[in-house]
Amino acid sequence: MTQRRVGLWLVGAFGGVGTTVTLGLSALSRGLIKSTGLVTALPDFGKLGLPEAAQFVVGGHEIRESSFVDSAEEFRKNSGIFDADLVAACRDDLAAASARVKPGVKLGAGPTIAKLGTWGDESAPRTAAEAVDRLEADLAAFVKAERIDHLIVLCVASTEPPFQTRDVHQDWNALNAALADGGEDLLPASSLYAIAALRGGHTYLNFTPSLGASIPAIYQLAESTGALHGGKDGKTGETLLKTVLAPMFAHRNLNVMSWVGHNIFGNRDGVVLDDPSNKASKVDTKDRVVTSILGYKPQTLVTIEYIPDMGDWKTAWDHIHFQGFLGTKMTMQFTWQGCDSLLAAPLAIDIARLADVEKQRGRRGLMRHLSCFFKGPEGVEENDFFKQYDDLLRYVAQSA
Ligand code: NAD
Question: pTM of the predicted model, to two decimals?
Answer without folding.
Answer: 0.96
